[in-house]
Amino acid sequence: MSYDQFSLADIQTNFSLTVHQSRSLFEEVMPLEVSDHLKVTLKENIPLALNINTEKARSEMLIVPMLIELRKLLHRTVSLFSGISLDVDESRGLMGICDYMICNSPSHLYVNRPVIAIVEAKNENIKAAIPKCIAKMYAAQQSNQEELIDNIMGIISTGSSWKFLILAENSVFVDYDEYLIENPNKILAIAVDHVRKVSS
To answer: Looking at residue 14, which CATH number applies to its domain?
Structure first.
């Protein structure tokens, strides 16, 4: 088994996790100002990516610019990995490729202290990607045991829509809301707020 093969039932049974979705998790997070560069990039890229409408176009034109902006907003104190292996425990199926990973370390030599796992939703189906995202969040949590980072964020994105999850101890909280790429200030504020909390 690998990350792609988990169902929600597998997640709850194999990892003893409880999944909750009943409320908005980030209402109190205030939008932050993003760079003019991102504004110009998204103004150009959003209609282009949505008209091309392939996963590759959405990834390259929408998701990647947002994640690079996230790193800039955090003053490059975090690392961004793309398409990297996260092999934590083969016997439990915690192995495979992560679409993107944000680590609470500036080094890009290896995955160190992962705090956000980002999953690209296939066929624009965010709901179907939830088990895959939780499995990667759980693997990140397990790899962090010696670093005492328990609170892991997950992000599922189609490029145009963004969904957030939080794994804390044995509970997974799935945000009731989705956020559109036209509001990058809120999307990035949520991610920045999370990294700052786990860094404090």
So the answer is: 3.90.1570
